[in-house]
Amino acid sequence: MDKTESVWAKITLGKKVTRASPEIVLGVCYRLPGSDLDMDRDLFNVFKEVNTNGNCMIMQDFKFPDIDWRTSVSNNNTAQSFPDTIADGFLHQTVAESTRGDAILDLVLVSSEDLIEEMVVGDNIG
């Protein structure tokens, strides 16, 4: 993972910490400008790994402006590998409105759509 920038946490939901407590893996990722396919694959492999352990939520700035998230299709083969990876990993992209200009660059991926009740894109911080 030294080729990518990300922070991961496993959070136990609820006041009591027991084995039966539901957990969620939370990841915040940043795709470096000029990332190549090998760097993308490293991060995509981490997505697959964390998603096999139950609930997960991954937030990121992936810089794929040419992906149409309504259809999960891109005319760029490198960019198309990203929605393909999301689908292969049974993840759901939940941001439906543009986050920068006309593009959806900031994403929230979840293992189950039940993890998000409402998604609202707000103003930039700072």
Radius of gyration from the alpha-carbon trace, in angstroms: 15 Å
Order of helices and strands: EEHEEEHEE
Main sheet properties: 5 strands, mixed
Distance between the termini: 29 Å
Please estimate the helix content: 10-25%
Number of helices: 2
Net shape? globular
Strand content: 25-35%
Per CATH, the class reads Alpha Beta
Unreliable segments (pLDDT under 50, ≥5 consecutive)?
A: none
The CATH superfamily bears the name: Endonuclease/exonuclease/phosphatase
Number of domains: 1
Note the quaternary state here. Answer: single chain
Strand order across the biggest sheet?
1-2-3-7-6
The class by helix and strand makeup works out as: alpha+beta
Average pLDDT, rounded to a whole number, is 80
How would you characterize the overall build of this protein?
The protein is built from two helices and seven strands. The chain has 126 residues and is of the alpha+beta class. The protein has a single domain, classed as 4-Layer Sandwich (Deoxyribonuclease I, Chain A). It has a five-stranded mixed sheet with strand order 1-2-3-7-6, covered by helices on one side. A two-stranded antiparallel ribbon has the order 4-5. The mean pLDDT is 80.
